[in-house]
User: Which sequence fits this backbone?
């Protein structure tokens, strides 16, 4: 593996870490609540088995006695000092330790869910959420569509720049002794594209590396790009792992591999076309410039002698 150029200045911000960790915290909280319910139920079951095994499936004797007394004395419901039928039916449910665990667990789950609904970063891409009879709308489709158009338009402008006369003129500046270094030109335009990605509305950052041999960890992507003659993309969507965009190219019978990587920015289909266009345009411009130089200076070698 031969590394020609390496540029790595990407930083992950505090809010990006928060946005990444919140779904895991949310899931861990739900698991903890469910585990508490299960463990508490097991402990109560063990205690009941030791004291009164029948209480696990049967109603307590105290409640059964109350039912019997009411059957024998129908007038008990008219006495306000004594329990009613409703009390006798509801109290065993409310006073049951198992039911208390269930009710508390459900209450904690509802509170936990509502807590994350009021944190905007936890539902950044959520359009609408319905909870019982309450409906939350946290993002507008129109706004998302406008942002998509702006992002696509910015990338289209970069494509237009690469194929324009300005890019050709900048490539000409690298002319030395009737030839141009392919790596230097590619690195220059990669740096310009990186600066363009940092601006609004993209607000993205990435790192780039240029190789003459395939890195071991990216061999599959390199082979895919080599076979398809297209850019290969692998998005992890994980702050601990990089997203990769790889392009394989050949210039003057020398293999070049460009690796674009980012922890925070997932590459899309427009990125694939953009970086492929960059390499194709650079190689084409270099060939045209070197050809024109050769035509205009056919006797350069003779003059030097």
Assistant:
């Amino acid at each position: 593996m031969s590394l020609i150029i390496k540029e790595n200045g990407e930083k992950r911000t505090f809010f990006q870490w928060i946005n990444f960790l919140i779904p895991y915290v949310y899931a861990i909280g739900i698991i903890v609540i469910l585990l508490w319910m299960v463990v508490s139920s097991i402990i109560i079951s063990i205690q009941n088995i030791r004291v009164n095994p029948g209480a696990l499936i049967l109603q307590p004797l105290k409640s059964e006695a109350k039912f019997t007394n009411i059957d024998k004395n129908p007038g008990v419901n008219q006495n306000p000092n004594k329990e009613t039928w409703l009390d006798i039916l509801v109290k065993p449910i409310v006073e049951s330790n198992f039911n208390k665990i269930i009710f508390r667990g459900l209450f904690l789950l509802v509170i936990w869910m509502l807590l994350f609904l009021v944190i905007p970063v936890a539902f950044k891409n959520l359009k609408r959420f319905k909870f019982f009879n309450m409906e939350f709308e946290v993002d507008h489709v129109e706004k998302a569509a406008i942002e998509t158009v702006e992002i696509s338009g910015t990338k289209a402008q970069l494509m237009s720049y690469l194929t324009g006369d300005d890019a050709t003129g900048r490539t000409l500046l690298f002319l030395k002794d009737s030839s141009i270094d392919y790596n230097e030109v590619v690195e220059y335009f990669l740096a310009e594209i990186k600066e363009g990605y940092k601006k609004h509305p993209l607000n993205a950052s990435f790192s780039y590396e240029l190789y003459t041999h395939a890195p071991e960890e990216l061999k599959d992507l390199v082979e895919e790009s080599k076979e398809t003659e297209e850019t290969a993309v692998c998005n992890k969507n994980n702050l601990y792992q990089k997203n990769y965009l790889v392009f394989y190219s050949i210039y003057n019978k020398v293999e070049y591999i460009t690796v674009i990587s980012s922890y925070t920015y997932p590459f899309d289909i427009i990125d694939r076309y953009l970086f492929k266009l960059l390499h194709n345009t650079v190689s084409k411009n270099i060939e045209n410039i070197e050809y024109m130089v050769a035509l205009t200076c056919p006797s350069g070698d003779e003059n030097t002698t």
Summary: Confidence is low (pLDDT under 50) at residues 63-70.
